[in-house]
């Protein structure tokens, strides 16, 4: 089976940097995704890692270590609009389904 | 517009009733996934279809069923509804490769009263 852990809530200040961690245990790993979800809205794709290392996309970066079952999402130059939930999801090798963690609610303060 | 269309956007119904949620995947996508998200909860995987065939099942209740039609749209049927079934129901689609993310519809908010 799969188990995905993320912190429940985090707070940060506008303009700062925040790192959201995700640890996972899975029987068949085929990639890790990060999604952003504003309350009541659909999740939107942020990043994808399948190999170890850092993927950078503008203000967002995501890191993966498969041997440690660990990933993080790094958000730089935080803006108020970054206040949202950030969902870590692991893709199952056999079916391609995504299994989501419970998400981390990030609040950005002025 | 993500390209994945879900209808209706909102649904209010009484306990014991049956409802059908509809999802049209993004053009060209063969895989459809259904997720349930209760208040302040994570996305719970319900069921996956690929090109009309069931491919994977999550913790889907026996009162729930789904299917994917030849035109690739999918329907999720929820019966004998209970108060606890109130949630957001999301559909997502992918072309099978999925390296660039799974596209989610805007969801159906179901309220059981």
Distance between the termini of chain B: 30 Å
Portion in beta strands of chain A: over 45%
SSE-based structural type of chain B: mainly beta
Helix content of chain B: under 10%
Unreliable spans of chain B are none
Q: What is the N-to-C order of secondary-structure elements of chain A (H for helix, E for strand)?
A: EEEEEEEEEEE
Shape descriptor of chain A reads globular
Sheet of most strands of chain B: 7 strands, mixed
Strand content of chain B: over 45%
Indicate the multimeric state: heterodimer
Structural class call of chain A reads mainly beta
- Helices and strands of chain B, in N-to-C order? EEEEEEEEEEE
Quickly count the helices of chain A.
0
Give a quick summary of the entry.
Chain A is 0% helix and 60% strand. With 110 residues, chain A is mainly β. In chain A, strand 7 and strand 8 form a beta hairpin.
List key phrases describing it:
heterodimer, A: 110 residues, mainly beta, 5-stranded antiparallel sheet, B: 113 residues, 7-stranded mixed sheet, globular
Write the layout of secondary structure elements.
The complex is a heterodimer of chains A (110) and B (113).
Chain A (H helix, E strand, L loop, with lengths): L2 E3 L3 E5 L4 E8 L3 E9 L6 E6 L3 E5 L2 E6 L4 E6 L8 E9 L5 E3 L3 E6 L1
Parallel strand pairs in A: 2-11
Antiparallel strand pairs in A: 1-3, 3-8, 4-5, 4-9, 6-7, 7-8, 9-10, 9-11
Chain B lengths: L4 E3 L2 E4 L5 E6 L6 E7 L6 E7 L2 E5 L6 E5 L5 E5 L8 E8 L8 E2 L3 E5 L1
Parallel strand pairs in B: 2-11
Antiparallel strand pairs in B: 1-3, 3-8, 4-5, 4-9, 5-6, 7-8, 9-10, 9-11
């Amino acid at each position: 089976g799969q188990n995905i852990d993320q912190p429940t809530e985090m707070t940060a200040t506008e303009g700062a940097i925040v790192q959201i961690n995700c640890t996972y245990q899975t029987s068949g790993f085929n990639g890790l995704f990060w999604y952003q979800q504003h309350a009541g809205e659909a999740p939107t794709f942020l990043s994808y890692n399948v190999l170890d290392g850092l993927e950078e996309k503008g203000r967002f970066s995501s890191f993966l270590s498969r041997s440690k079952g660990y990933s993080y999402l790094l958000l730089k130059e935080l803006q108020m609009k970054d206040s949202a939930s950030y969902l870590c999801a692991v893709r199952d090798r056999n079916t391609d389904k995504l299994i989501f963690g419970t998400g981390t609610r990030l609040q950005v303060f002025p | 517009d993500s390209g994945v269309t879900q209808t209706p956007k909102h649904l209010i119904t009484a306990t014991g009733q049956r409802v059908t949620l509809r999802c049209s995947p993004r053009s060209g996508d063969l895989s459809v996934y259904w997720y349930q998200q209760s208040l302040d909860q994570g996305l719970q995987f319900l069921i996956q279809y690929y090109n009309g065939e069931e491919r994977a099942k999550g913790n889907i209740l026996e009162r729930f069923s789904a299917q994917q039609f030849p035109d690739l749209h999918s329907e999720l049927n929820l019966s004998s509804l209970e108060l606890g079934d109130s949630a957001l129901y999301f559909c997502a689609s992918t072309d099978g490769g999925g390296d660039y993310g799974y596209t989610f519809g805007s969801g159906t908010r179901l309220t059981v009263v």
